[in-house]
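Support case: user asked for a sample of complex input and structure output to validate their parser. Sending the pair below.
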Amino acid sequence: DAKTTQPPSMDCAEGRAANLPCNHSTISGNEYVYWYRQIHSQGPQYIIHGLKNNETNEMASLIITEDRKSSTLILPHATLRDTAVYYCIVSQLLDSWGKLQFGAGTQVVVTP
Amino acid sequence: DTEVTQTPKHLVMGMTNKKSLKCEQHMGHRAMYWYKQKAKKPPELMFVYSYEKLSINESVPSRFSPECPNSSLLNLHLHALQPEDSALYLCASSQVPGNSYGYTFGSGTRLTVV
């Protein structure tokens, strides 16, 4: 699977949009971009995934560049409950080995 | 029921003890996983069970012994652990193996080895 690079940390003001970047320059054609987050002392939680089109759900939006070498997770109106470590993962939709593997992630702190 | 339940939430054990961690899901998922997470590190995959059979062991020491008695239950048996095995142990499940957007995680068992 392709590797990802994320900033180690970022701050965001409550009520503002949080834009979380992720680089995945070695992504292959059949690999998706997934985002999970982990709130302190909880298990990771799935947020969103995409292949090449932009995606939106009730939690976030995912913008993938045309060359697919990078993406941005957007939390439109950050709340204090969005403080968490956010993981960008590149993987096949159905990894026959079942290996969902996490990188270092970005620690996001939302401040009042 | 859309949850993965892990028990106990906290466990303290001595290096000579034998203990077990339990994980349960009732979503009909046929793949279950154990992850280990050290403080301020990402989760690391330990084991994958696919249709109740062990499909992946990520070179985990034999003092960790997984068991999948049925499609809803996953156990992790612990014996002769070392203090460096202290960590958060996370269980996850997915509908089929490797369904990357469908992983549901439990809240974990925080293990301390003394």
